[in-house]
Design a protein that fits this description.
This protein is mainly α and 452 residues long. Helices cover 55% and strands 0% of the residues. The protein has 18 helices and no strands.
């Protein structure tokens, strides 16, 4: 009798297990959105309140998952272009692990092995290698990424006290055109991306995090009272823009970022564009509208996204009317203080007006040909649209990838035709643009609203 008492529960348990197993087996691919890019590392999505499935992404109280159609599959012609580009790029690595763009005084030297390596160019290449699927531990070019990372870490670690840059080099193409301290801004961005991808358990994490905090400190020390960065180059607005976005990225991975410095940096970029009149301040953008508006777009994207999400939630809760337009009053009704509402409304209006100009064919055409600054501006615009969760990014991606594929050199590289002409720098930047859809979840995590 006692034996029978054990048999019945055993049958029930076995039956339950079979049902559970069948339910798992039947949950086929059609029930889970397929994401054409790898899911974000857990360290990138600390704000996520539910596990990621495919492309689904949730912030603290958005309540809506990311539409899988937001992520685009890379077209075959772009894949081929990327492969040709990265095959050329990795061959440009120097013996010390770095990559170089050469000096402003000798822009005629196009051989990547005939120039000195520099942190700014190495950081751009490192970010391109990561965006194209390589990590410190795996990927076809993980070895090249490791060496580039070691190069940058050493540069930061040997920076003397009181310095404003992480390299003794002066007069590089990148410094002359963007700013004397551009190496710090781009290395900060690289280290932010690296720290996010490797996670706290990685053996290189603490070293990379210390270097990141050093770079953040250098940026903040070199900040002017108006939020720009000291040492303007020909298009200094881009240096300041990359410094601002680097601080923003660094903050998302827990670096020691001063909120006042970050707000000041963002405000400087937004001030370059008047959303009411459409006028653009180009004095520190070499007179080029594209540089200024892409910078304004990039540094108002996260705040514009927050406005969209807060207003959508307020409409759902009945705090504001369903047809309410975004303005200061609407934002106050949605829960912002008067000062916050004015600040966020400015960011929202600047983002939406500046992104239109940044994609205007007349603005993009610029000088009629592209220098490295144009490539950087394209990159800023595209990343802005993704960070803001703007469906317009898909149209931008189609137009911009076509433009880049069409002008790729026969050897797989890209080079600028004025100003920043370096094939290494321009190829790295072009690859970052072409492969931006590989980084959707990482970019979304940077712009995710951290609600109070």
């Amino acid at each position: 009798m006692r034996k029978n008492l054990f048999i019945l529960p055993a049958i029930l348990v076995a039956t339950s297990a079979i049902i559970v197993l069948v339910s798992f087996r039947q949950a086929g691919p059609s029930e889970v959105p397929h994401c054409p890019v790898p899911a974000a590392d857990p360290s990138l999505v600390a704000h996520v309140n539910e596990p990621i499935k495919g492309c689904v992404f949730k912030s603290v109280y958005e309540g809506e998952g990311l539409d899988p159609s937001f992520v685009l599959v890379t077209p075959e012609n772009v894949v081929r272009s990327e492969q040709r580009g990265i095959d050329w790029l990795v061959k440009a690595q120097a013996n010390d692990g770095g990559f170089g763009s050469g000096s402003h005084a000798r822009q005629d030297i196009m051989d990547p092995h005939a120039v000195s390596t520099d942190p700014a160019t190495t950081a751009m290449v490192g970010m391109a290698l990561m965006r194209m699927g390589n990590t410190l531990d795996k990927g076809q070019y993980s070895g090249q990424l490791k060496r580039a990372t070691e190069y940058l870490l050493v540069q930061v670690e040997k920076t003397p006290k009181g310095a404003t840059n992480i390299t003794p080099l002066t007069g590089t193409q990148i410094q002359s055109k963007l700013g004397a301290n551009i190496d710090v801004a781009l290395t900060t961005q690289f280290l932010s991306n690296l720290v996010a991808k490797i996670g706290e358990q990685h053996g290189s994490y603490l070293r990379a995090k210390r270097a990141l905090n050093t770079c953040v400190s250098l940026i903040q020390q070199s900040q002017n009272s108006d939020g720009s960065v000291q040492g303007d180059g020909w298009a200094g607005v881009l240096q300041s823009s990359f410094a601002a976005s680097a601080l923003e990225s660094a903050k998302t991975v827990g670096a020691e970022v001063d909120d006042v410095a970050l707000d000041l940096a963002r405000d400087y970029q937004k001030a370059n564009f008047d959303a009411n009149t459409g006028s653009v301040a180009t004095e520190r953008a070499a007179g080029v509208t594209l540089y200024a508006v892409s910078s304004s777009t990039r540094n108002s994207a996260a705040e514009a996204r927050e406005v969209n999400e807060v207003v959508a939630k307020a409409k759902k809760e009945g705090k504001v009317s369903k047809d309410a337009q975004v303005d200061t009053k609407t934002l106050e009704d949605a829960g912002y203080s008067r000062d916050e509402a004015e600040k966020m409304n400015t960011a929202y209006q600047v983002y939406n007006a500046a992104k239109q100009q940044a994609q205007d064919e007349r603005v993009i055409s610029g000088f009629g040909n592209n220098g490295g600054e144009e490539f950087l501006s394209f990159l800023q615009t595209g990343e802005s649209l993704v960070i803001a969760k703007d469906q317009g990014w898909k149209n931008w991606y189609g137009q911009t990838t076509k433009r880049l594929v069409d002008i790729q050199n026969q050897d797989g590289s890209w080079n600028g035709h004025h100003c920043i002409t370096s094939p290494v720098f321009c190829t790295a930047t072009s690859l970052l643009i072409l492969s931006v859809n590989n980084d959707i979840e990482h970019l979304l995590a940077q712009g995710a609203v951290k609600y109070k």
